[in-house]
Amino acid sequence: MLGVVVHGPGNVSVESVPVPELADGEVLVEMMVSAICGSDLHTVLDGVPAPARPGWPGAPGHEGVGVVVESRSPGVAAGQRVLTVPDRAAAGAFAQFQALPARFALPVPDHVPPEIMVCAQQYGTVLYALRRFWPHRGGSLAVVVGLGPAGLQFVRRLKGTGFTRVIGSDPVGLRRQKASELGCDVTVDPTVDDLGVVVASESSGRGAPLVVEATGRNTGRLAALRSVAERGTVGFFGLPEGRSELQLPYAELFERKPTIMISDGTQHEPQLRSFREAIDEIASDPSPTSRLVTHHYPLASFVEAIRTAASRQDVGKVILHP
Prior knowledge:
The chain is an alpha/beta fold.
């Protein structure tokens, strides 16, 4: 089969590799599509975090839809279409076939195109994160810093759960446009306007009770910290930016006293609740999710695809077709 092999930071190729063999409790999935996540950019291009299994074919891909062709688990039958949601140790979606523990293969309906249903993986992580960041129903004002695919999913969910106003920030015009289509009330180009000033203006100087960072960059984290209200919550969703250090504006933080939270580990949530909810929501109405997808590549063009995703210019979700 063809599979992506990461040899080191920025050193990646698509190679002919053996189809993985199954262990007890695993399933073999023939991939229909996989998708590039922002976290993949960090792992493939920066080497942070390091792959759980260096050189493993298909890693670090963890967003995929395919059909089970062989099963060594009594709970999953061959022929079932599934969303694959592996943890880092089992990630292998950037390949024509993927072997993974059956618990990470969730049934999905056939009526939703796989390039749309694959977005349920990321949407599940968004649902999980918001349960940690904001375990309430709705609110007055939320800010989303970064309007890539994950940030757009946050906008969608925040508006769907009753936030009165949502402000989104991103330098890319297409992303701001898509955020507005998903209900974002105010969009900000941080290369033109200071997000903190806009948030202060929209909140009578108080700041936002909830700010979500979805950039994976320290500039985004600082912007989030400078937009939060006193005793508000800042949720860091993006992965670390290489080995760089984040210098905190402690005097400002001391005045605002925010709660800072990090979300990780959706794959180990009991019964994978958030992924299942994401599947159900997208199955009932695929149209909002379809707006996220902008680029399609064959698996053999993975290097070009990940460079496109990393460019962040008029790029939403990048889909790979094995």
